Amino acid sequence: MKKKIIEQELNFKAVRSGGAGGQHVNKVSSKVVLSWNCQKSVGITEEEKVLLLERLKNRINKDGILILETDTTRSQVKNKELVINKLFDLIAKSLKVDKVRKETKVPKSVINKRKETKVKMSLKKALRKRVL
């Protein structure tokens, strides 16, 4: 993954942010919408594209465009930085290959200990009964 190339491929759009606010909120476009075409991107390899399309299939539309948006702060510049960081975190998280879980066998000592405690508990409960 080449961040510099991907940053050049990004498209930004400033939109008016929703929610509560004063008179100023109706005039300022502080929400930033980022769109990135990951299918046509040159910043990632073909294997990475396959991984991204598979793992982010619910976030990527049918044209292969990933859309992210942020309206956390009141500053458009800060929101732009935040949405870029959000994109790279999302890419890094989805490209991370999980370790294969290696199944382990339960040790015999653990099995024997469990059986011994079962025998002790049953003996303890048997001793509580009334003798006829």
Give an account of the 3D structure.
- The chain has helices at 3-9, 46-55, 76-95, 108-128; strands at 11-15, 31-37, 65-70.
- The termini are far apart.
- It is elongated.
- With 132 residues, the chain is α+β, with helices and mostly antiparallel strands.
- The chain has four helices and three strands, in the order αββαβαα.
- It has one domain: Double Stranded RNA Binding Domain (2-Layer Sandwich), CATH 3.30.160.20.
- The protein has a three-stranded antiparallel β-sheet, covered by helices on one side.
What would the keywords be for this entry?
alpha+beta; Double Stranded RNA Binding Domain; 3 strands
Quick summary:
This protein has helices at residues 3-9, 46-55, 76-95, 108-128, and strands at residues 11-15, 31-37, 65-70.
Q: Proportion of β residues?
A: 5-15%
Tell me the structural class: alpha+beta
Shape: elongated
Provide a count of the helices: 4
Q: Biggest β-sheet: count, sense, barrel?
A: 3 strands, antiparallel
Q: How many domains is the backbone divided into?
A: 1
Distance between the termini: 80 Å
| Total count of strands | 3
Helix fraction? 40-55%
Estimate the mean pLDDT confidence: 90
CATH topology: Double Stranded RNA Binding Domain
Radius of gyration: 28 Å
Q: Would you list the SSEs in sequence order as H and E?
A: HEEHEHH
CATH architecture type: 2-Layer Sandwich
Low-confidence stretches: none
Top CATH class: Alpha Beta
Main sheet strand line-up: 1-2-3
